[in-house]
Amino acid sequence: MSNLFHQKSLNLLSEQLTEKGIDTSELISKIAQFQIAVPSWALGAGGTRFGRFSIGGEPRNLEEKLEDIGLLAQLTKRTDAVSLHIPWDIPQDTEAVKQKAASLGIGFDAMNSNTFQDYGQPLSYKMGSLSNADAAVRKQAVEHNLQVIEIGKSLGSKGLTVWLADGSNFPGQAHFRKALQWTTDSLKEIYSGMPSDWKLLLEYKPYEPNFYHTVIPDWGTSGLICRQLGDRAKVLVDLGHHLPNTNIEQIVATLMHQDLLAGFHFNDSKYGDDDLSTGSIKPYQLFLIFCELIGGAEEGAQAWDSISWMIDASHNTKDPLEDLIQALEAISQAYAKALLVDREKLNQCQNEGDVVAAQEVLQEAFLTDVRPLVREARIQSGGEGGPLAFYRKEKIREKLIAKRGRSSQASGL
Amino acid sequence: MSNLFHQKSLNLLSEQLTEKGIDTSELISKIAQFQIAVPSWALGAGGTRFGRFSIGGEPRNLEEKLEDIGLLAQLTKRTDAVSLHIPWDIPQDTEAVKQKAASLGIGFDAMNSNTFQDYGQPLSYKMGSLSNADAAVRKQAVEHNLQVIEIGKSLGSKGLTVWLADGSNFPGQAHFRKALQWTTDSLKEIYSGMPSDWKLLLEYKPYEPNFYHTVIPDWGTSGLICRQLGDRAKVLVDLGHHLPNTNIEQIVATLMHQDLLAGFHFNDSKYGDDDLSTGSIKPYQLFLIFCELIGGAEEGAQAWDSISWMIDASHNTKDPLEDLIQALEAISQAYAKALLVDREKLNQCQNEGDVVAAQEVLQEAFLTDVRPLVREARIQSGGEGGPLAFYRKEKIREKLIAKRGRSSQASGL
Amino acid sequence: MSNLFHQKSLNLLSEQLTEKGIDTSELISKIAQFQIAVPSWALGAGGTRFGRFSIGGEPRNLEEKLEDIGLLAQLTKRTDAVSLHIPWDIPQDTEAVKQKAASLGIGFDAMNSNTFQDYGQPLSYKMGSLSNADAAVRKQAVEHNLQVIEIGKSLGSKGLTVWLADGSNFPGQAHFRKALQWTTDSLKEIYSGMPSDWKLLLEYKPYEPNFYHTVIPDWGTSGLICRQLGDRAKVLVDLGHHLPNTNIEQIVATLMHQDLLAGFHFNDSKYGDDDLSTGSIKPYQLFLIFCELIGGAEEGAQAWDSISWMIDASHNTKDPLEDLIQALEAISQAYAKALLVDREKLNQCQNEGDVVAAQEVLQEAFLTDVRPLVREARIQSGGEGGPLAFYRKEKIREKLIAKRGRSSQASGL
Amino acid sequence: MSNLFHQKSLNLLSEQLTEKGIDTSELISKIAQFQIAVPSWALGAGGTRFGRFSIGGEPRNLEEKLEDIGLLAQLTKRTDAVSLHIPWDIPQDTEAVKQKAASLGIGFDAMNSNTFQDYGQPLSYKMGSLSNADAAVRKQAVEHNLQVIEIGKSLGSKGLTVWLADGSNFPGQAHFRKALQWTTDSLKEIYSGMPSDWKLLLEYKPYEPNFYHTVIPDWGTSGLICRQLGDRAKVLVDLGHHLPNTNIEQIVATLMHQDLLAGFHFNDSKYGDDDLSTGSIKPYQLFLIFCELIGGAEEGAQAWDSISWMIDASHNTKDPLEDLIQALEAISQAYAKALLVDREKLNQCQNEGDVVAAQEVLQEAFLTDVRPLVREARIQSGGEGGPLAFYRKEKIREKLIAKRGRSSQASGL
């Protein structure tokens, strides 16, 4: 989009919004302030159990991961933090890493532990970690999480995200109730090892890598555990972690209703945990989720600032940086559209049972082309008007390949 | 099966079980004691939104419904109670109904309220009942439930089952959090109107008849509400009320872990709430559910006697009485097989991570032909060895048609 | 939207499109020409197996149904034909009906037969119709379809739509291969009874009202049968007739690739055959479907004019006329957005494996606010700028209730 | 099970079957003759995208894979062939491999090509292989398949199995119709390179490793391509390659109806392509599939001998050899139970619309404990009565670890 059309479109939209009593500059300011963390493992090519195709120029260490996120931040102004994964991202020199991050304007979002793989630790996680029938394995897994907390503390992180792959592949393999109890007990130990200004973000997922049962399959189980841990334990929603046809926006509302929403792992999917680019498959669902988020915060269910935002996708076919630029844009659009919803009118429709008009209110917001607002927010923040075009024009991937090599592989997955 | 083969099979099975240390007569006694309630609406032909095909000879009133269940009880000895639905089953003469039921050996299981249809009440439930944005509608729905409790008290029932169809068909139609709160508040009023020896059984269902959202879509939401009501409010599991691929046996375990399982609505399904005959589609799942039930009770998670058992199917193509005979048999078989599981060995396999052997333990029980045990339990209780064959030989449906007419239609759905 | 903003928005959009080499007036003309048929049964309130809530003022006979569609045509200019259902819409006076329709500018789209219900015919369809094991039932069902063709001929229709509910509820009930063969044979008789300028539109549906198997569950089976009938038999796609997560746009492409796409039944759904308003749940999917349709037609796979368009939704909570206005708008928007896709650039991206840019091409079109184009097309055709607002301002439903009564019920479902 | 009880159970079952007119020895003979191939990649531990847990003692080369299958054959007498995967199993010395296989009584089932990974070939398959927009990549992929045919010819194989991972992750990435046409054209070249006594087995799969679309997602597309190739191209059914709730047994019947069923990849699943042990999750579905197979063959739809049988599971938590023993047992049981179905009576029920009795016929067979028959078939063939017990008693895995090492990893996935 040329600058000329950007300005014209923005002006016309602004004119229309003003007529509706919406302050465009306030809107742009909100969009500009909304920041989404990026995980360290999202900077390399992902893969499936059937293989992986390299992208080239992938970051070879933590420092290069920070550089990639710094670049994203500079171009998009939509991200200001990285989420590290231990053991993949154990810093060699903590101070150097902190300084590098600070120089790039990047903070440290929630830390991620890993008890779903064997990477040289004494006891195997093949039969589970926090839920393992063997107390020694549970102890090892707890200690790993405590170590992750320590690393996070040293970097200035304020949260621990636990995704538990524990579960079973066959009926009879696991004792459902014991596994749940052991997991709860293990998490209690981890929770009590967290500083008082940290929060624990507990994921749920119905299947994969276990295909009969997972210990924390749904928000109900995650919430049940969090309630036993304490107020700073909340439920993390990964958009891909649901059974077919799940109404995710309702889960978001139900969690906010209980002040129990930890935050998001954004991605998109058609089948399961496909980890596709956010907004690429079901953009209307993403918009409806943001409608619930804004409504829940405005109506006092749960504070907006208490929610964590992160992208978690697997870049199997796209350049990860381009994919992240697209995802940040899609999230910003969904947020901007949800901000346009006339909530007063919507409430009135709901009270009157005017289903047709309620749909019109949502459609009015969703159908609006908000790209001028998102672009303006980015420009005003000092980012690029068209970050993807800039990335390509500057041949950034080519430069990264020249520097890091064609066959470099990001550490981790 | 001839009596000769029944005896031979029973003897051989008994011999094998004895060698494993299992007391066959105790087993038979447990099977004989297990009783499953039948709802009053299951005695007529069901239908879909596309139509309904009559079966003929359907009960025309409450008394005839009791007679049908009395017949079922006599033939199968697996059912001893009816679950009534108000307003479909409002007794004209309570004492007469009680006497009729008593004479047939039939008790009154949990009562069912209906706030999902308009049947002449002043305010419409089109936009919901307990969750309606209009306080007057909520009040009416609460009062209906209180009236159902009164009727139940007069008959000797000890429970109220609430299936709430409330929800929305379109994004924007309902306010998720308000709907949930209003529902909780309404249920609090109903709960406080229940006698102290009653329990409230709260269903969940992800969709249908609303197709965008339902107010109580999953066990987590049902449990959340129950926790706010009190100890006598628990979650009812209808086997058809789940999203595709849900691990239902795990939900059963999770609910028992919290002493939160109210009971079951048994049926089977391939797609959604298909309401097919229990055990006709996924018999192994039914077995696994009973494994959890027995394990949870034996290990002290929740008392067996605190759980309610009911069939809830829709007989669209079969004679309802034949369908119920098949369902009662399938449930008894699943229960009997689950009783055969060597739980000690299973626990050992789980502790040792011996997945292959754990599967063998379950398969050993499931593959056993337990029909001699179920048949013997029925015979010892005074029922028919082959109730379905008896029903056909005696031409019972033909007699019912002769008596009640070919186009009689069961009251209700 | 005020007229002022409509004009401003249209001008700016037109300016932008012109710069991209797109002729706005041609675009508007295409949108204006696109007409979608409405079925006669969509004019009354729908329902589920759990009940039905009346809307009031529903058309009481075929003439009133025509009047409702005439009104829709007048307001929206997006529909010009009705699709009748026999026996619900058997005309009493064919000539009068034709004249009424002609006076309203309404033609007769494909006829719909009904062999899924018992409505007084000699033999029951409980165990199936075209696939029934009893040859006499199959004969009756074939003859019903032939009668529908006769009625259609008298009205000027040019097609027969067959939705076959046949199937089974339980394993063992039906003989899969025989049922398929009998259905094929029955359809051959029907096909040979069609005039040479008619087409047969054959639906598929995986489940409901049968819940174990349906005789024509997927496009593959429908296509297999059509191939045995002849060139004028093609596969009809109802958007709600798919298993969870099905990629419907790919099915559309695959059918066009074989010149085998009969047309559409538009609606939307979250779970199954929910029959919600088109575009209310998955607008991006609808857009992607139109991308395939336009691409397939432009690239010569199948001619655009050979495809039939119809809405088929169930209006359980909305005023049917308002619902149809929303659906016609949503379909027009999806079509307009798909027309904006830069297909040349998309093809180039596909050839070069530029996945990121391919997504941008689609997003560029989808994110554009095309409402000014759709509105302008409507206005230029003589319709209302805002048909929904007009409908409400004119209190049309209230007038219909006054005329037809509050408890009128549309004939049929 | 002790030998004593085996004999007693077999005698009683035989007595019962004789009374029904079933010849037990013929039954045992059929079970004994039924052989299922094992793929070379199933002998090592599988994994997910999140990691892999070694089992130890995995075969390090083709010879050791043959040895493992030879062991399976010796213990179970249910498998007599291996299915190789190229490039993972390119024989170094073809004659030596053939001799080794012959000495173990193992033949060579269908060959498997691999165009879903990059393993050093000049052009990448990242954007597809047989469907790639680049003709050079398509040519490379065709030539790979032709090379696989050559290797297969040298070993005595008679078939080529093509599982095509081609597809796309994002809307817009692929051109559906072109991808389908290119795939068809590529397969024509491969088909014409096959010897005249070979068959081509073409798989379908709805998703994974591509998560938006796959080129051959369903049986309809696979069948469409096969029809264009020739009579020796048929559709392969992998039990895990379906959308949720698919009626697989119906697909089997529909394919046999067209003489279009190539064969099976046996496994089981709860969510997607979980690749769990056959029979571990849905044993009743497996039984129903065998009912269709036997019915289709007996009634002349497609010859039994024209169908290929193979296990294709991923052994993530079990010892692969133990897993395969369990799978072979489960398949044998399902087959044996299906052989017990009283098909004449079932047909009668179907003709009379006696749904209840039809279910009883299937249940009568499914509920029968056929383990004595399967065990006897194994013993009579010279296998072990209890192969799993034998395997453990003889500490075979321990011996393999001692010989091959704890960290050996099977070549391939």
From TrEMBL, chains A, B, C, D:
Keywords assigned by UniProt, alphabetized: Isomerase, Manganese, Metal-binding
Xref: Pfam families: AP_endonuc_2
InterPro entries associated with the record: L-rhamnose_isomerase, Xyl_isomerase-like_sf, Xyl_isomerase-like_TIM-brl
GO molecular function: isomerase activity
Sequence ranges assigned to domain Xylose isomerase-like TIM barrel in this UniProt record: 88-275
Protein name in UniProt: L-rhamnose catabolism isomerase
